Amino acid sequence: MTPRDDSDANSNAHSNRWSDLERPPLNAVALRRALVRDGGRDGGRGGLWSDVQVVARTGSTNSDLVALAVDGKAEEGTVLVAEEQDAGRGRLDRRWTAPARSGLFFSVLLKPTGVPVERWGWLPLLAGVAMATGLSRSAGVDTALKWPNDLLVTVEGEERKVGGILAERAGADAVVVGIGINVTLRADELPVPGAGSLALAGAATTDRDTILRTVLRSLEQWFEKWRSVGGDPAASGLQDTYAAGCATLGREVRAELPGNKSITGEAVALDGDGRLVLATAEGVQQPVGAGDIVHLRPAGSPGNE
């Protein structure tokens, strides 16, 4: 599958789509020059990123890159970025939509060579740590991680979701990790009340080129460190770093599980498999490996919201 780029299909639509001067397009040439390795791992400037493609519009960068990988048309380190998505997906097939060029919507192809498959579940958490680190460096915003795949910022004293992650298998040896970050969304453009953006959180910059470069470099550093120790979350420092930045730990939460089941308890730990451990009222410590987490009260406050 080739990513759909219909920017030239209609000249009037093309003109309108680029008319918002506060939201300039990404500079694909500059991004490739800054990020793409020269000569591969054993020659020239080594690095993870092998290609950066920017398209004006597509359905889902994750779907496109998974298809390219399965067909053998994308190598490890490929980055696919869309200025606009009309079928972007989050966990549980939730839609992720935003105005053109108001955010960063991209997917990367990773091959966790040498990492046991049972540790691949750490990749969304690794991407979250990389996002938080990159946004702190580039945009100067305080972020927090909501287990398992959301990034939070504070807007007018309230926690808001500013980013999300979706990881999908791409054949037997690869994973596509998709990342969405709301950058310049204004208050009247927010899709749901709990959403936010870097601009609304008081970011020092909303230059998407700068932010994307920094996040991808952070992702490369964490991925290579994690892969070099066979995906060991403790030896790589990933487990401790995620726990330190996780807003879910220490809070009363409800885990909404498949099959219309739920568990309520205090989120007390992150185990070696990346699962969230809940201490229930019955005195049981229950690990949760998948589900939708609802924060019921702020950390350290009495009672529920």
Task: Give your account of this protein's structure.
The chain has helices at residues 11-17, 28-35, 61-70, 123-139, 208-228, 238-244, and strands at residues 51-55, 78-82, 88-89, 95-96, 103-110, 144-146, 150-155, 158-169, 175-182, 252-257, 261-270, 276-279, 285-288, 292-295. It is an alpha+beta fold and 305 residues long. The protein has a 7-stranded mixed sheet, with helices on both faces. Strands 13-12-11-10-14 form a 5-stranded antiparallel sheet, with no helix packed on it. It has a two-stranded antiparallel ribbon with strand order 3-4. A hairpin with a 3-residue loop joins strand 6 (144-146) and strand 7.
Question: What would a concise description of this structure say?
Answer:
This protein has 305 residues and is α+β, with helices and mostly antiparallel strands.
Mean pLDDT: 89
- Show unreliable segments: 6-18, 39-44
In which range does the helix fraction lie? 10-25%
The rough form would be described as globular
Secondary-structure element series: HHEHEEEEHEEEEHHEEEEE
Number of helices: 6
Number of strand segments: 14
Largest sheet, if any?
7 strands, mixed
Strand content: 25-35%
What is the gyration radius calculated from CA atoms?
A: 19 Å
